[in-house]
Amino acid sequence: MKEYKRYMVTSALPYANGPVHIGHLAGVYVPADIYARYLRLRGRDVVFVGGSDEHGVPITIKARKEGVSPKEIVDRYHALIKESFERFGISFDVYSRTTSAIHHQTASDFFKTLYEKGCFVEKETEQYYDEEAQQFLADRYITGVCPYCRNERAYGDQCEQCGTSLNPIDLINPRSALSGSVPVMRATKHWYLPLENYDSFLRKWILEEHKEWKPNVYGQCKSWLDLGLQPRAVTRDLDWGIPVPIEGAEGKVLYVWFDAPIGYISNTRELLPDTWQDYWKSDDSCIVHFIGKDNIVFHCIIFPAMLKAEGSYVLPRNVPANEFLNLENDKISTTRNWAVWLHEYLDDFPGKEDVLRYVLTANAPETKDNNFTWKDFQDRNNNELVAIYGNFVNRTMVLTHRYFNGKTPETSLWTDVDRETMQEIALIREKVENALENYRFREALKEAMSLARLGNKYLADAEPWKIIKTDEARTRTILNLALQLTTNMALLFEPFLPFSSAKLKNMLRLPDIPWERIGESDLLPAGHELNKPVLLFEKVEDDAIEKQLQRLGSLKTTNAQQDCKAAPAKPDILFDEFSTIDIRTGTILEAAKVPKTDKLMKLLVDTGIDKRTIVSGIAPYFTPEELPGKQVSVVVNLAPRTLKGVVSQGMLLLAEDADGKLVFVVPERAVANGSTIS
Questions:
Q1: How far apart are CA 484 and CA 504, in angstroms?
Q2: Taking all residues of the chain, what is their mean pLDDT, rounded to a whole number?
Q3: Per-residue confidence at 360, pLDDT binned at 50, 70, 90?
């Protein structure tokens, strides 16, 4: 892989309207931090940039809900996010914010440069306007029914249920999120970046010159380009954001997607006021954006088009976007509070920063969505970090203190097994480097763990605790090599598990050893004195996991209650019409799926009047085996009708719960079949 003179590593700017959760960490911040730490260990010139995105509609929505100003919201969450990252060991060189004066200046100057070069198109268009609130509605202030999945609470820019990007006019039955009223269309003027003008540039740059990009990134870019690029507005009618810095644009701000990526540049300017351009405008710089899949279009299509239009910036070399991480088989949702929040994790599991880093890396959603479960968290900690990594280190340290007074023993004669074991370290280092250079962090961690497995196998096969009485010289060699392995592990794991590596380095009393020496067999000289051993990792007990699962369980119940919104009532009917409906209790005697259908179930029901066949569309929710014996409510005077060749004589009463599943409507306690329900 080509080596550059300097590296600019950026991570997506989190919205300062809530805390950071594990989905953010797995998708963006853990891999970005591993990469930045690795580059530093290789001695490369690297700047790792982060910051809070403090403009945009999600901020104003949060502020409106709480009855405070947007400034109060961003101040609160910027501080929480920054502190959480610091506690978790995300090693930003700068973590700033888009409300800073230098960002406002940088973004304004960028807009003016493009404006003066004639890069924008000024257009008057019709947009949704809330007559009650007397303001134009940003996309996130418009809700309605998604035309693709029928989610009734889709936003004007995206449906969070199916992930489809939307325009407000796509929504069915749109409503204002401010007043709940039906918005009207009204004319307004905005400035647009004509992305279609950059189509040929983007096709060549991405599809021809960057075929090495991850398949999920390359594929999404190709899809956008094949669909045809359209002009994209760069301004919005809002009162929170960076004012559009030209005459005639009063009351308008820069659209958040335009100003946010410029935050990478302004944060670098804040850190390096004299040399920031070296990282952003030199051909020997390598810019790498770490983002989630929902930001691919902004970082691979729109921001590069902006940079190309401006003319003086280099383009990103790679955008290794990850997919999404789910939580306990359900999509993480900040609006439903369905998440594991970083600051809460750090409070609940003190000293276990590296455990979460390890689990999120080992289970990273690199090319497809993946799933976090607390059971897997516990298993990986107990069965891998404790039983493999920690076990090898602890045995090596304890045996050295027991037999050789805590000093590195000298070697006498190495066997072929000893030499082969040491040679394996160099091969493992090479595999780790190759994976990291190509943004395959899960693979890199797996290879690093193979070094711990190698150490365990070596000790188990050599059995120094058995031969110490008969062959002290051989025991010295075995433990010397085990200590060299341990030292190599402390170095190799540093990008992944920085807290544990620091702890292990302290136990070993290591001097500064460069990355390039990983694989050498004399990192600890004979006679080197070690500190007392302490446990690197400790087991996560069942009660700690049960506490987290109970919390999620209570959240699920609360969400279900909040999500269960009744549909509007049907038109009124007269009492005489209702009184003609005959509803009785019954019991299902037999059940079988109707052949060649997915939904229909054929039931034999004892209604107390007779035993009759009823066909019902409940097959997706119940198995034939679980239905016999269930009491049900039956409309017994419904006219017969034929479904898929089966005559159905009645209808069962069911309700739909918050999860979309059907449940039978039955009396509070069992009653005789044929009892009238009135």
A1: 13
A2: 92
A3: very high
**Residue 645: band (very low, low, confident or very high) from pLDDT cuts 50, 70, 90:** confident
Work out the pLDDT band at 660, boundaries 50, 70, 90. Answer: low
- The residue among 152, 146, 144, 154 whose CA lies nearest residue 181 is 144
Count each helix (H run) and each strand (E run) in the chain, helices first.
22, 26
- Tallying the residues shown for the chain, one arrives at 678
Query: For residue 195, what are the CA distances in angstroms to 121, 237, 290, 457, 458?
Result: 11, 21, 23, 58, 59
- 36 or 413: which carries more pLDDT confidence? 36
Structure token pair of residue 658: 């918050």
7, 286 Cβ separation under 8 angstroms: yes
Q: What is the pTM of this model?
A: 0.81
Cα–Cα nearest to 279, from 267, 290, 291: 267
Task: Report the C-alpha dihedral over residues 62, 65, 67, 71, rounded to 10 degrees.
Answer: 10
Q: Assess if CATH 2.40.50.140 describes domain 575-677.
A: yes
Task: Give the C-alpha separation, 13 to 96, whole Å.
Answer: 10
CA Rg, the chain, in Å?
31
pLDDT on residue 213: 97
Task: Give the pLDDT band (50/70/90) at residue 671.
Answer: confident
State the number of CA atoms in the 13 A half-sphere of 265 facing the CB.
Answer: 24
Are 149 and 164 a contacting pair, CB within 8 Å?
yes
Cβ burial, residue 465 (10 Å; 0-12/13-18/19+)? middle
Give the Cα separation of 645 and 594 in Å (integer).
9
**Interval 149-168 mean pLDDT:** 80
- Tell me if 6-112+255-331 shares its fold with 575-677: no
Class of domain 6-112+255-331: alpha beta
Domain ranges of the chain: 6-112+255-331, 118-236, 373-561, 575-677
So what's the pLDDT on residue 564?
46
Considering the domain delimited by 118-236, tell me its CATH architecture: Beta Complex (2.170)
3-state SS, residue 537: coil
The CATH topology of domain 373-561 is Isoleucyl-tRNA Synthetase; Domain 1 (1.10.730)
Measure the CA–CA gap between 342 and 348, rounded to whole angstroms.
10
**What pLDDT, on the 0 to 100 scale, is given for residue 573?**
67
Q: Determine how many CB atoms are found less than 10 A away from the CB of residue 304.
A: 22
Measured distance CA(219)–CA(212) in Å, rounded:
12
